[in-house]
Amino acid sequence: MADLAIVFHWPPSAMDDLTVLDLMDWRERARVRNSAE
């Protein structure tokens, strides 16, 4: 969840309703977005 907050500037309340699978999907998106090219 910290990855999402840092990369997408989301407050913790924005993630309250996400399922574990949603969190995993968004965490992968954050990893890809934040990775060095």
From TrEMBL:
Pfam families cross-referenced by the UniProt entry: Phage_P2_GpE
InterPro entries, sorted: P2_GpE (IPR009493)
Name listed for the protein in its UniProt record: GpE family phage tail protein
Originating species: Undibacterium umbellatum
Taxonomic lineage: Bacteria, Pseudomonadati, Pseudomonadota, Betaproteobacteria, Burkholderiales
